[in-house]
Amino acid sequence: MYEVPVLPRQWRQPIGGLAFITLATIVLFWESWKSIVDIWIRSETYTHGFLVIPISLWLIWSRRENYRHLHPALSLPGLLFVFGCGFLWMAADLVHVLVVQQWAVVGILVCSIWTILGNKATNSMLFPILFLFLMVPFGEDFVPSLMEFTATFVVGLLRLTGISVYREGLHFSLTTGNWSVVDACSGIRYLIASITLGLVYMYLNYTSYKKRLLFMLVAILLPILANGLRGYMIVMIGHLSDMKLATGVDHLIYGWVFFGVVMLLLFYIGSFWQDPPYVAVAEPESELQAQQGGAYPFFSGIVLALLACLLIWPAISGWLAARQGAHVDIPAQFTQAPDSRWQAVNAPDWGWRPDFKGVVNYDRQFFSDGAAIVGLYAGNFGAEAQGELVNSLNTLLTSRDGMWRILKTGRVSAALANGGRLDFDESILGDGGRELLVYRWYRLGSVNTTSGYVAKLLQLLKRLSGDTSAELQMVLYAETTPVSREETAGILQKFAAACCGA
What we know:
Structural class: alpha+beta
């Protein structure tokens, strides 16, 4: 008859404390945890996230006999790392960098475990604890590179096979039909699945760090190569069947079947180098441990210290964000003419205007020097509760802009009176009969930049220091023609230098 294992006395308080701190972490950082689960639900690439916690607990349970003799104890480095992860979460929350928030909130949980269990116990179950970081949905940044590799690999194999193929970017054509490498063809799903399964297999079958490293290197490179072969196989099936096969749902079925075979082959080959199972040797209890029995010194104080580390960051982040949101005025220098040469005029009928979702306050003015008219727009997103200053959704054209199209983009700069330079993202918009030259940049306090990364960093430094000066999306624009673009650019640059030079 199966007997339920009895939890050793020295583990009872720590397990209870971990349950309490885990619940507190979920409650206090609910939005960050919710964002992780939302991505698991929304994207098939990250559905493995639902299995991470069960797998971690199972890995610990499967080797529970290795931990029975250990005595959890406070880890001060762990407490410091909880504090650091909390600060990282606050910084990411202030400037709305979701993926950093997600890494930080999982880091808070992992470091809380470290704090309560202590260095020795945490080190003994280090892999299952660090495995929790796989809850974070990551890898999207690798998709463009993986798509490029897949396209290059498939086209290369097709040409080696002697098949005529014409490639243009991620699109290529054969005599039987056209193909494109889209996001789903990048192989990111296979790569993440291989990393997850490979890590578990590595932990269960190898104790040598060299073998673990080599196996994981293969587990990372193999799905990338296999995805290229999968793409080649699908294109060949379509080509040889005159585009009757591998162009519908069977396209995906072939891919997953092929990936499954590759992973089974990887695990089968890897089994030939398995190490003997790791067996922990129970260490004799010290005299102090024997006297303490199941007691955990200062346990309540440790839990309270952890709770305090969790409580302060959402409170500070909310306070700093509220301060920023309370100051959404547009500076006077962007609501009036920069000098006497320019006079405010009524809005011309150009048929287009800047319009960014989430702006809580904006000002749009038009000025003329008698020969030309320029439009100046400044938008303030405040605490960014409705929208973000730096966001890929903040585009110049939306579905409401009808026939308008972006004809050309580039980067230009203008000299300022103080010796510095002001950079702009330049766009030329056209609707088939009219053209607008548009300059765009960020203005944070007195600093101008076109870089989203620099703007995020400036936002963070401003908000941490309590500086509530305006954070603006700036747009300067004027009507132009193909032959007068250079002249119009000179007018815009001089105007921008006059109003931003201070």
